[in-house]
């Protein structure tokens, strides 16, 4: 099994000719006439070495990146189209598996999402299959800044916030393909120990019609070390850290999807489910 492959990772880039005092933003709706949709660009960086996680020795405890097994028997891809089935079957099984693997006492899931790649992605053709579904996310990012997470705690836990969060907790992302082996736009994970958090991370406002979320986009740094799970099965679940109440975001893992290319990839468009959760120890 190869130690690494070479691929393209997409990173954020600011236009140095523009006002860098303006906070980066992207509008997730049609901008008013004459108003820029965003004030930064995402640029592909070619020739990035992406290492084989399976033989890396990387652990969740030290690097914030892990993989666990899930009992996926009877979990057909079409079952995930039923929200009630996801809530009543998949999420409880995921709760049990994650808590057992991480030694957590409890887990509170606050978000989940299906992604179904359109055949023409990333170049889009109107009217094709899965056009309206969420697509793989191609730019290196972290889903929340510390400030963003803090602003959400009252929403998730209400008046019980201080009591609930008096325990050690982590915020995690949990990702798996609906079918395997996954050879179509798999996930890549950046070792947080190789990230310069002052220089590499840019806080960006993702603006929707009724809310704005603050995330980190990532600048390229030659010191970065990336990993992926070759041929990930539907019974294999990737877990990666976003926040730790004792360590902050020192283990928060930048991540994105990437194209394996024609030689290694698959013609079968990827379908996947991601879950975001608090885990309590």
From TrEMBL:
GO terms for molecular function: oxidoreductase activity. Belongs to the asaB hydroxylase/desaturase family. NCBIfam families: CmcJ_NvfI_EfuI. This is Methyltransferase. It comes from Parachaetomium inaequale. The lineage of its organism: Eukaryota, Fungi, Dikarya, Ascomycota, Pezizomycotina.
């Amino acid at each position: 099994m190869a130690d690494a492959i070479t691929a393209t990772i997409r990173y954020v880039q600011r236009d140095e000719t523009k006002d860098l005092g303006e906070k980066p933003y992207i509008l997730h709706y049609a901008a008013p006439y004459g108003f820029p949709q965003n004030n930064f660009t995402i640029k592909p960086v070619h020739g990035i070495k992406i290492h084989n996680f399976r033989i890396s020795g990387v652990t969740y405890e030290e690097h914030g990146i892990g993989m666990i097994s899930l009992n996926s028997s009877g979990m057909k891809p079409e079952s995930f189209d039923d929200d009630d089935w996801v809530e009543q079957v998949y999420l409880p099984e995921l709760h049990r598996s994650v808590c057992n693997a991480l030694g957590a006492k409890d887990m509170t899931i606050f978000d989940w999402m299906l992604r179904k790649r359109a055949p023409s992605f990333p170049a889009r053709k109107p009217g094709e299959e899965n056009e309206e579904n969420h697509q793989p996310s191609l730019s290196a990012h972290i889903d929340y800044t510390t400030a963003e997470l803090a602003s959400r705690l009252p929403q998730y836990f209400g008046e019980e916030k201080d009591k609930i969060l008096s325990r050690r907790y982590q915020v995690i992302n949990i990702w798996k393909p609906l079918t395997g082996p996954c050879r179509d736009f798999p996930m890549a994970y950046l070792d947080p120990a190789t990230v310069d958090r002052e220089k590499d991370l840019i806080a960006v406002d993702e603006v929707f019609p009724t809310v704005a979320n603050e995330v980190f986009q990532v600048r390229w740094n030659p010191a970065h070390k990336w990993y992926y799970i070759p041929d990930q099965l539907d019974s294999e679940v990737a877990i990666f850290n976003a926040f730790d109440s004792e360590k902050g975001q020192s283990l928060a893992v930048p991540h994105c999807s990437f194209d394996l290319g024609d030689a290694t990839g698959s013609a079968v468009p990827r379908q996947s489910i991601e879950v975001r959760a608090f885990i309590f120890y």
